[in-house]
Design brief:
Organism (chains A, B, C, D): Lysobacter niastensis
Number of domains of chain A: 3
Oligomer: homotetramer
Main location (chains A, B, C, D): membrane
CATH architecture of the largest domain in chain A: Up-down Bundle
Largest interface: A-D, 65 and 66 residues
Protein name (chains A, B, C, D): Ion transporter
Order of helices and strands of chain A: HHHHHHHHHHHHHH
Membrane topology (chains A, B, C, D): Multi-pass membrane protein
CATH superfamily of the largest domain in chain A: Voltage-gated potassium channels. Chain C
Number of helices of chain A: 14
CATH topology of the largest domain in chain A: Four Helix Bundle (Hemerythrin (Met), subunit A)
Subcellular location (chains A, B, C, D): Membrane
Strand content of chain A: under 5%
């Protein structure tokens, strides 16, 4: 829902071309608005493809000129789109400072900046800026209305998952430091941050193998770390599954959403099916509509 | 279910050998049909084994002749089977253009094509063609009737899983580009597509290690990517588990959707199939349409 | 349950030392039987430790004699135990041919065989035989009575998981062959069996990295394979979770276990809480004890 | 809950500065107590950061003096805190021997010990001791009150998960020994403990790739091991999800355990906390002991 266009955005005027274009750009329920959306998705994907191809050395050397032109073409196209978006809303600043407004801006800025910061020594910087244009991809999610359910369950289990992640990081810090002592720099565990990186890679069962224990004790500690990671990999899955199952079912959360207070004892959190307070037996007001 | 033989296929004639063979080839409920199926499964597995052994250099040099003959024997066998399948159906074109018809064709074609495209320079091409014969393996799934439940839950959660995958790919694109900038070509992140490949390998916790971050910043970004991946690995599991649990249970969804109250004792939450209250025996109003 | 001592085993005689020892060896509910069990667990773990230490080159060269004696001591101890087990049951052959009887035999046999097959050239073979002694470890599970619930859910979801695994192997075969053609022997995909091994390693998100794609196309195919694997990793988890949740809840299965038939309409499968038939309203017999 | 400050700790006196500081240090519900907690969290994180940075060779050489001073500053700060904690409780020994008391002690001891054990040859030992100071990080969990639910489900599924882990280790031992025989020392499987480490790394889908099978038979055995691991990775997830779902729901388990029937309408399945029937308002018999 937060990924939808900001509902507080209003057209700059109720009639005229600004109203027409507002409907085309910000709404998604007419034929013309949908065509505009499809066109934009196509342009975004194409521009990302151009950036990706440009990064491949063999393609860059052969088609540098073409890719450079296309990059500018897309940048101009998105600049016009950005100007239009600003022009047709009543409060352009609100759009410009919203999450999507910033992403729209960042996806055109780097190309312009690459003109101001020329020279061979700034190549690396330019690459950083160009990378930002890939945030364009994020725009795609705006068009997915259905992500609501999945996103909702994720947002509701956010606190629990953050808690879990901090427990994970704590274990990674302790085991990272332990492995730094046990294995030491000559086995690849060059410092504690590197060891922590290794511990995260190991606990999450990624296991690149760029760093790996080589002593017997190190391998034993690693086995223990893996078994710990393997035991708690269940936790985020459990959190999310329980949350999603309950939201598909309209479950405990629906129960919590039941706003009825007992008029006698003040107890909240009644079963939506309940007609009487389970604590004092007082008749409850009718439920505000079942889930 | 979609993996069953196309139910719209009809025998070419109601009597005679074509009817007999139609029943043997396309049906699975008589003794002869089952024997035919078993024979075919055995032939498919054996032919795949021959192709696999032929690819092992040491075996190929010693038994080239034998393996070559066997490959041709299986190809002829499957060609006869393919001809029979065409011969006994009323509408051969419908079979030929169905998914299974195409797989059946592709599993015999490469061997014939290897005669037309001879010479040492085409060895690679021939291998590509031969590989296609392995699609024979896919035929096996046709014989598994029980996959219905599992497949059903997968098909029903298809949209949600696709949505999840596109979110995953979006994150992979952004982080791939980021790592391309942070680590650069001299650390193995040679171009953005390669970096995206690396990001997918990392997020899915595969972690080959053929490419791995080597700078401190790169390792920090990798840790963040891994923690993101680790947090959302729960999503497809949650989707599928909730879907499967609800279909095994015949559904809380179904239960809650049933709005009927017992007129005698007021109990809600009846089985949609129930005609009488399970608590007091009172006749229930008719269900508003089963799920 | 199948891992318990075979309940069909009966003491060789109802009195005397054979009865006494039968109770000590095969039962687990007296003080002496428990002491015997603990002693056996300790001996098994110690003997496995000896084998493990003996395999470490630096320890072997220093303590070869000691470890050799201990290995023989444990072998004699387990041989006596095996003879006792045979002696105190009424039908020794039934025990000898049961799963546990065979494991007990295989855990002592290799040491004796190493006497008959001497000579330096056969050392490798002897090692194979010695490895079998590690099956002793499997004995440990016999003592875990509680594994019943977990094992039960695993056994009940056995068919579904096998189906899933064969789908996994089918995909691995097709993608293995595809990668053999795409990457070829000079990138490590030396033959189709090796490629299939690589595909399994990749789909299961293990990702050793001993073999990894190096061409752009190969990396694209790998990404697709990983996304497929990532989408269906949910399947076994979903199967098992749904099965376990339902057995913890006494759920649909318990419902099926409710043996009450409606005396009027014959419907089975009532809610254990139900007092009246949900189909015809007939009073049900009392439930045979709630789950 | 076990991670909270020990509820049996009592202030040394009911009035005076000791009471004041007891409330600041051990309680978390006043403004000053919260400020103290925040300050302590900040100090812990900063001190861990200093240790981490000190381990990076390039930073150590440039800022050795600064980092050394900061390490001593934090050590003194935590020493004062430790002394305060001892001073304000009635029974200092009970605190000192509690889990948190020991962690608090271990997080300051190593720095002092590094004075007593000087000399270049003992540098490695000092590193071991310094690592222990990272246990400070563990203190952080004390401040997370919400981890109760997640921790509770983990604690309740503890037995099942331990059982699962021992099954995992058993399989790892058998397959480790098998691979030691199949692949042998010249392929990296130098001894059985190393092979077991490899089997754990493989089954848990970490797959570093530092050791990998190279023979055809070894790769086949590895594939089997991976498929086994892939099938049972569902088990801890299933256990935890089922446990968490049931505790979020307030539980079918709880519901089923409550045997009370409403004497008026006969409804069963009441909340164990309920004193009145939620359907008809009738007073319920007292619950037979809450779950």
């Amino acid at each position: 829902m937060r990924l939808q266009a900001d509902p507080t955005l209003e057209p700059a005027s109720e009639t005229g071309w600004r109203r027409t274009w507002f409907d085309i750009i910000y709404r998604h329920d007419t034929r013309r608005a949908r065509n505009f959306d499809l066109l934009l998705i196509f342009a975004i994907l194409a521009s990302v493809l151009v950036i990706m191809l440009d990064s491949v050395a063999s393609i860059h050397t052969r088609h540098a000129r073409l890719l450079y032109s296309m990059e500018w073409a897309f940048t101009l196209l998105f600049s016009i789109e950005y100007a239009m978006r600003l022009a047709v809303v009543r409060n352009p600043l609100r759009y410009a400072l919203s999450l999507w407004g910033l992403i729209d801006l960042f996806s055109i800025l780097p190309t312009y900046l690459s003109l101001l910061v020329p020279g061979s020594q700034s190549l690396l910087v330019v690459r950083v800026l160009r990378m930002l244009r890939l945030f364009r991809v994020l725009k795609l999610t705006r068009y997915v209305e259905e992500s609501g359910v999945l996103m909702g369950a994720l947002v509701r289990s956010r606190r629990k998952i953050l808690l879990f992640l901090s427990a994970l990081v704590t274990i990674a810090v302790v085991f990272g430091a332990l492995m730094y002592v046990v294995e030491g720099p000559h086995h690849g565990f060059t410092d504690i941050p590197t060891s922590i990186y290794w511990a995260i890679v190991t606990m999450a069962t990624v296991g690149f193998g760029d760093i790996a224990p080589q002593s017997a004790l190190g391998r034993f500690v690693t086995s223990v770390l893996i078994l710990i990671g393997y035991s708690i990999i269940a936790v985020p899955t459990g959190i999310y599954t329980a949350e999603l199952a309950s939201s598909l079912r309209g479950g405990p959360d629906a129960g919590q959403a039941d706003p009825r207070l007992c008029t006698a004892c003040g107890l909240q959190g009644h079963d939506p099916l309940a007609a009487y307070c389970r604590q004092c037996g007082q008749a409850l007001p009718p439920a505000p509509g079942s889930t």
